[in-house]
Amino acid sequence: MADYGGADLYYTEYFRVHADSNLEKPILRSVTENPTGRPVAAQMIGNDIASLVRTARELQEHPIAAVDLNLGCPAPVVYKKCAGGGLLRDPRHVDAILGALRDAVVKCKFTVKTRIGFDDAGVFEQFLPLFAKHDIDLLTVHGRTVAEMYRSEVHYDFIARAVEAMKCQCWPTAMSRQQRRLRRFSS
């Protein structure tokens, strides 16, 4: 990757946020000891509003370009705790989290990574107005549901809907089987 000049923006591994959590030192080092000279977004995952706000404030005391909320992790160990993609089962709670974080994130950008639903892509239409309402700075859309994990084809039409509906930039993140085959072929 160095031959291509590196990434324009790096994301940390996610900080696991709960009532007793602290900023995990190995993840924090990827921010404080960043040798790339490129911006870093600090990714958080959790469901407790007060803890997410506390962590977002702590993260802003470090050299980050953004606080990123992960609403996309499809790992059962995560979504069974109603974190990551598991939050997509509760639009009202997501709304409350987004509102609290939008108020707390003042020194950098506030971004969200999401999937298009938990087990039903039809709910994505409920989330787009929430993302817009809270004036997020960037929306990254993984074009599959949590239940689809990485197995199905990407639903590019949902990514296109996000681009049309949002004032902020929208980035896709998912590869189709064809793209993966082409990448393996070209290696």
Please summarize the sheet with the most strands: 7 strands, parallel
Mean pLDDT, to the nearest integer, reads 91
Could you give the distance between the termini?
A: 13 Å
What general outline do the C-alpha atoms trace? globular
Q: Give the helix tally.
A: 7
How large is the radius of gyration? Answer: 16 Å
Can you put this structure into words, describing what you see?
The protein is of the alpha/beta class. The longest helix is centred in the middle third of the chain and has 14 residues, at 91-104. Helix 2 (49-59) links the parallel strand 3 (40-45) and strand 4. Strands 1, 2, 3, 4, 5, 6 and 7 form a 7-stranded parallel sheet that branches. Mean pLDDT is 91; it is low at 179-187. Helices cover 36% and strands 17% of the residues. Helix 2 (49-59) runs parallel beside helix 4 and helix 4 (91-104) packs parallel to helix 5 (124-133). The chain has helices at residues 25-32, 49-59, 76-79, 91-104, 124-133, 156-165, 177-186; strands spanning 10-11, 15-16, 40-45, 66-71, 109-115, 138-142, 169-172.
List keywords for this structure.
7 helices; 187 residues; alpha/beta
List the helices and strands and how they pair.
Elements: E1 10-11, E2 15-16, H1 25-32, E3 40-45, H2 49-59, E4 66-71, H3 76-79, H4 91-104, E5 109-115, H5 124-133, E6 138-142, H6 156-165, E7 169-172, H7 177-186
Parallel strand pairs: 1-3, 2-3, 3-4, 4-5, 5-6, 6-7
Helix pairs in contact: 2-4, 4-5
